[in-house]
Amino acid sequence: MILVDTGPFVALFDPQDAEHARCKDILRSTREALFTTIPVLTKAFHLLTPNSRGADCLRDFVLDGGVSLWFLDQAATTRAFELMEQYGDPPMDLADASVIVAAESLRTTKVFTLDLADFQRYRIRRGHRHIKVEILGQ
């Protein structure tokens, strides 16, 4: 199972993005189930610009089952806010926090992201241990 962050969605569905070809290659070679969160999609749709061709393609990708959604409940939202405080400098946004919380809940360490600087410093909590994020395509 792989969690997808905002950057790959923007790159995949905007052919003008500098990472478009690389992200397509990574997606093509991936055989594991993809998951993402609503905060990630919200940020991706904002960056792609609503009603753009890229936003339409992302919407179709989600509706056609290209990625499954993991939803934050009250406990997950509380944990996301804790992470946002913990990683305050530079600040962690809600999309990134939701990916880490989903990784903790779904028991995966794999994240498809272009945000190397941040995700290399984030850790996934497993009991008393804190595990590094395994970044795809790095």
SSE pattern: EHHEHHEHHEHEEE
> What Rg is obtained from the alpha carbons, in whole angstroms?
14 Å
In which order are the strands of the major sheet placed? 3-2-1-4-7
Q: Which percent bin holds the helix content?
A: 40-55%
Largest sheet: 5 strands, parallel
Whole-number total of structural domains? 1
Apparent shape = globular
Distance between the termini: 17 Å
Could you give the count of β-strands?
7
- Assembly of the depicted chains: single chain
CATH architecture: 3-Layer(aba) Sandwich
Spell out the CATH superfamily.
5'-nuclease
Question: Can you put this structure into words, describing what you see?
Answer:
Helix content is 52%, strand content 17%. With 138 residues, the chain is an alpha/beta fold. The strands form 2 sheets. It has a 5-stranded parallel β-sheet. A two-stranded antiparallel ribbon has the order 5-6. Strand 5 and strand 6 form a beta hairpin. The mean pLDDT is 96.
Write the layout of secondary structure elements.
Layout: E1 2-4, H1 6-13, H2 20-29, E2 34-37, H3 38-48, H4 53-63, E3 68-70, H5 74-86, H6 94-106, E4 110-112, H7 116-121, E5 123-126, E6 129-132, E7 134-135
Parallel strand pairs: 1-2, 1-4, 2-3, 4-7
Antiparallel strand pairs: 5-6
Helix pairs in contact: 1-2, 1-3, 1-4, 3-6, 5-6
Give the key terms.
138 residues, five-stranded parallel β-sheet, alpha/beta, Rossmann fold, 7 helices, two-stranded antiparallel ribbon
Summarize the structure.
The protein has 138 residues and is α/β, with parallel strands linked by helices.
